[in-house]
Amino acid sequence: MVPPLVLDIDGTLTDAQGRLDSRAFEVLPTWDAPVILATGKAFPYPVSLCHYLGLPQTVIAENGGVVLADGEVTFTGDREAAQAAADEFVARGGDLGWDAADTANRWRETEIIARLDADEALLREVADEFDLEVIDTGYAYHIKTPGVEKGVGLERVCETMGYDPAEFVAVGDSVNDASTFRVAGRSFAVANADDVAKEAADTVLEQSYMDGTLSVLESLREEDAA
Ligand SMILES: O=C(O)COP(=O)(O)O
Ligand SMILES: [Mg+2]
Description:
Elements: E1 5-7, H1 24-27, E2 35-38, H2 44-53, E3 59-61, E4 66-69, E5 72-75, H3 79-91, H4 103-106, E6 112-114, H5 120-129, E7 133-136, E8 141-144, H6 150-161, E9 169-172, H7 178-183, E10 186-189, H8 195-200, E11 203-204, H9 209-225
Parallel strand pairs: 1-2, 1-9, 2-3, 9-10, 10-11
Antiparallel strand pairs: 3-4, 4-5, 6-8, 7-8
Helix pairs in contact: 3-5
The chain binds 2-phosphoglycolic acid and magnesium ion (MG).
């Protein structure tokens, strides 16, 4: 049997331009074990990706703030505090880089994000005053509740569905994947990963983006066939 997978989306299933790599449609629907998408993106993104991949909807969104397993959704993280911090950031002259109607925050339930060209020092200063943290995934700044992490989300999925986290193989590219790497049995950082992810991973891959991810999946299939 191939092992179950927990996969990051941006930087891991995408290309360098952030587009989903079409090879995901070949390899993931035919994977003969659970595939969990674990992302910093808002809830609708991984849900729709599962839908169009033809995968059961088991997702970790908003860096662990939202978990869907066995049809049950759980939310952790203080959205109101994140919103208050974001409002304060704007009141002090900061710019999140999106307006209220933007899809980046519109469906976000447990945290708020800012574009990477936002004033990072001010964002961190304000977040700190609200007992929140800021993480930089390479795709956005996330203003979030400390302790809400993808790895905790994976543990929740496993509790709900009766899986063992140690059986999972994780692939990811950034700081928000480090917690997943600690919980999963085996972990791989793609070559484009940031230093935190590379440090946390068991193995740093030679190839970037979906090329790296596919190299893991191919070797897992080879191990299974051996
Ligand atoms: O939402 C982000 O900032 C990054 O998303 P990811 O966790 O799928 O890489
Ligand atoms: Mg990523």
